[in-house]
Design goal:
Helices cover 45% and strands 25% of the residues. Strand 3 and strand 4 form a beta hairpin. It is elongated and about 90 Å long. The protein has two helices and five strands, in the order ααβββββ. The relative contact order is 0.12. By secondary structure, it is an alpha+beta fold. It has a five-stranded antiparallel sheet, covered by helices on one side.
Length: 122
């Protein structure tokens, strides 16, 4: 066997080994798929809440909020962000709470200074 043929066989062996390894590593269990799906769902809910809630608070109070003081979630169906106002003396709010339900795909409850602004149910 010539040296060129040995190199060609070696390269083909590397490719075959690579395809086999990739094929074997793709075998995810059902539990792995469910966990990955739950993580993607939580990230989607959190991203939507971080996008929609500050805009709604700005619209209703005129005060821009950036970082929530507290977050609450069950990691599957809802995400709640809670802010404390900074400009209380100049007409801002004391506390704002915004809840986003995954089933609604939007804000389900917005409460500013104990006044319910938005309240939606399934």
């Amino acid at each position: 066997m010539s040296e060129t043929m040995k190199v060609v066989l070696a390269v083909l062996g590397v490719f075959v080994t690579g395809f086999v390894l990739v094929g074997l590593s793709k075998n995810e269990s059902l539990q792995d798929k469910e966990n990955a799906s739950n993580i993607r769902n939580l990230v989607a809910i959190q991203t939507m809440a971080n996008d929609k809630c500050p805009k709604a608070i700005l619209e209703h109070t005129g005060e821009q909020v950036y970082f929530p003081k507290e977050t609450k979630t069950d990691k599957e169906t809802y995400f709640t962000l809670i802010w404390e106002g900074e400009n209380i003396k100049t007409g801002g709010f004391k506390k704002a709470s915004c809840t986003l339900l995954a089933s609604l795909g939007g804000i389900s409850e917005l409460v500013i200074d104990d006044k319910v602004i938005i309240h939606k149910t399934n």
